[in-house]
Structure formats: structure tokens, C-alpha cells
Amino acid sequence: MTRLIFLLMIVLLSGPAVSAEAEPIGRLFFRAAERAQFDQLRNDNALENARAGRPAQTEKFSLNGLVRRSGGKTTAWVNQMPQRENEKQEVTVLKSPARSPFIPLKLPSGKQVRLKPGQTFDTLSGKVREGYETPVPPLPAEDSK
């Protein structure tokens, strides 16, 4: 058995060497120039919002996931970003009972909502939508004759 492991290690180590000319992996799917362009656009948008006095606000808040630690704080993923319990972030995760399926969230506007994982709260309509529901687009306004 040890001979087999030894032989496998020799074969693996003596395999073809990786070319030094290969492009480094970096970020997935994007070349360096594309990443720089995306970063510049992101920074320009943030700067423009700051100059106009507009905070970067979201109209919809989705509770994507939840981790409750037995001896610690809860972490909730809101709009794909981890938010830890009682930490000052864009969305504050408030304390909830251990067995409750709902997580109370305090939004940047100060409004508090209770969501279950998979639900989305729309600040414009004030409604909670389930993850399996597809949003219904508004009907086009009919012209009065």
C-alpha cells in the first residue's frame, strides 16, 4: 500500500511543469482591463451619488439566507451581502427568538420589516413578495380619448 502511494506521488510530481507564460487566474471571467473599467464605473457612480447628496439606496431588500449560531449572533444575507446581528450596516439585523422563522430587519429608512429567507420587501409598494412569485409588471397606461 505504501509503495502504491509512493509511486503515485512520484508520477504526480514528475508530471509536466506549468508554463510560466500562462496568464494568472485573477478574477473569474474578466480580464484586467475589464476589471479596471468596472471598478472605475463603480467609483464614478459612488462619487456622483455622494456629490448629489444621494445615498446609494435600494428599492428592494431580499433575505437570501440565514445562519443562527447556537452561542453567538445571527448572520443574514440581505441582497447577497452578509449582515451580522446588531452591527451598524446598510441593513441592521435585529435580535429575534431562536425558533422564529422571521428575521426582523431595520432598513436604512428606519422602517422595520420581518422577513423569512427567500422573501423580498419592496420599499416602493410596501409589500413582501415570496421568492417563488414573479413580479407582475405594471400595465401600460391607456390613453384617454
Name the average pLDDT.
76
Give the strand tally. Answer: 8
Q: How much strand content do the residues show? A: 15-25%
Provide the gyration radius in Å: 24 Å
Widest sheet, order of strands = 3-2-1-7-8
User: What is the overall silhouette?
Assistant: extended
Largest sheet: 5 strands, antiparallel
Distance, first to last CA: 88 Å
The SS-based structural class is alpha+beta
Would you mind describing this structure in some detail?
This protein is of the alpha+beta class and 145 residues long. Among the domains are: 28-56; 60-129, no CATH class. It is 22% helix and 23% strand. The chain is built from two helices and eight strands. It has helices at 2-13, 32-51; strands at residues 60-68, 74-78, 81-84, 92-93, 103-106, 112-115, 120-122, 127-129. The strands form two sheets. A five-stranded antiparallel beta sheet has the order 3-2-1-7-8, with no helix packed on it. The protein has a three-stranded antiparallel beta sheet with strand order 4-5-6, with no helix packed on it. The longest helix is centred in the N-terminal third of the chain and has 20 residues, at 32-51. The radius of gyration is 24 Å and the shape is extended. The termini are far apart. The mean pLDDT is 76.
